[in-house]
Amino acid sequence: MSKQPEENTLAAPERARRRFLTQVAAVTGAALAPGMVLFEVSQARALDQPVSGKVRWGMLVDTTKCTRGCDLCVKACDKENGIHSHGRPETDSQWIRKIRLRDLHTGYVQFLPMLCQHCKYAPCVDVCPVGASFRRADGIVLVNRHICIGCRYCMMACPYKARSFVSEPLHDQVPWSPRGMGTVEACTFCVHRVDRGHKPACVDACAADGPGALVFGDMKDPGSKIAKMLAKEQSSEVRADLKLDTGVRYHGI
Amino acid sequence: MKQRIHYRELEGGIGFWVLLAGFGVLIALGLASVHYMETYGHWVTGMTNQVVWGIPHVFAVFLIVAASGVLNTASVASVFARTPYKPLAPLSGLLSITLLIGGLAVLVLDLGHSDRILVAMTHYNFRSIFAWNIFLYIGFMLVVAIYLWFNMERRMNRYIRPVGFVAFVWRITLTTGTGSIFGFLIARDAYDSALMGPMFVIMSFSFGLAIYILVLMSSYAGSGRPLGDATLRRLKNLLGVFIAAVLYFLAIFHLTNLYWAQHVGVEEFILFGGNVYTWLFWGGQVLLGGLVPLALLYSPATGNSRFWIAVSSVLVILGGLALVYVIIIGGQAYPLDLFPGKAVSSTFYDGVINTYTPSLPEILLGISGIAISLAATMVAIKFLPFLPVSLKDEVVEPPATPPAPATAEAHA
Ligand code: SF4
After folding, report:
1. Nearest CA in chain B to A168
2. Who's near B404: CB < 8 A, 6+ residues apart?
3. pTM higher than 0.95, yes or no?
């Protein structure tokens, strides 16, 4: 967050130069993408190793790339985690959603995906009476579906409306992403993929067929792409005033 | 010269059993609703991913708050040593347990996994105010049970004051804890306030006393036991004070929120939005639950009428339910403000006022909580000596210098 004021005080030519550099970096990044994947794989822990606090998984969303009408990330998430609509939008689960923002004064319109922000100081974890909501040492916030009593206090507490309550019997579940009626669920950062050295499904989908607006990686590893980009570009947390130290950051808002 | 108060089990005629059976039916309907909701899932209710707590929580929170307030009468007797309140204390303690049981039952039965109640009792996250509340509730019932025992067991009578004091402190903590369940929701503009806890304490005094008055009046009227005017007058005057205190606190709460730029949106939505919450607040709580009973209780024309005292108590309860509805549902109907200064929209109802229509099953579940409380109270006063045989004025508060030797009427 400390970077934001600095960005705001930049003169226009400087901002333009930065934008240019960003674009160059993005293009180079895209060219390097296969190598990046290999690099990030090396960050994965062996499956019999405990989760390490030396890692903090995070995501950087470049809202300047996220485009109108695209919902590749949402579709990929639904497919990966076996989320189906029951035709009842008010109770259907949504782990990731596209939000349209319009500046009330200028009319400027932007788009961005909203998902669990994997906060370091997660309100859902704090309020959960039974400890079903928890944060792994590597920063991923999860719900233990075997303990969750379905009280929904975490949904009341989440500032991002990132959680859904499973309101009806489920079918066609995928084995790697278990869900259950009567429990609360949210984005897991595709923990089953991350633990095997892959990236979340949304990130891969956006990179493969979309604008590549999502960058995922270990924020604590100075050599990772995300850490480098965070060091170089403006980014901010949503509701930074709450000081939750989110694992998802946004560029361009 | 002190007159002994005699307590005895309630003598129940056919009316008693009919009423009890009526509550039984309500409880059965509530349980059937739970079965229905558990089989099909919560989508059959009005609750959604936007409004996650619904009418069951309104009833549950109302009952839990009232449970602590109803103990007021006992506290006045034991902590503040007011003699006329002593005969009223056992019923006060009993109601505080049964109302709490009713409220908690609704809360538990609405869970997505009520079957995991054992998990809730064995897994604790000590950072959670919710988990702390579970301890507060269980402890409260224990303390009040001990209090009741000391009250009934003559040998233990002399220890009643310290236990009464513990119960008093405990219940203030408990209601503050219940209020803090909302107060700790920093992300929601409607709740994020340190005043939530104290406001719940004041609300509890008023709701609890209204319930107490009604239960007292109906059990005495139903069993034909005498209930003196002085006792009722005392209680109704106290109720008036509490009603005024709630109104005062509501004014403070909303005024401070209106000064807080971030909360202005939700305040305007509730107070001046012209929606169901606006109506429930002004019409339900302020007018029907506040100003009208206040006028009824203090007006010379109605203030001494048992009928109007009962009406006022009913109004306080309805107004209280309206207030809790506004707090719980209204607070969720107003959207989260993720991006100040921007209009937001999505497929997940971002940036829109959320709608909520309670469904029949969840209303039945909520009502069954009240039925559980009242049925348990009835069974208890039927089989245990909770109620004084007489609450005639001269029994409750014998004249300081008795004109004649003690009368025998208390031994009816
Ligand atoms: S719904 Fe489940 S995860 Fe959320 S607070 Fe309740 S028990 Fe915890």
Report:
1. B41
2. none
3. no
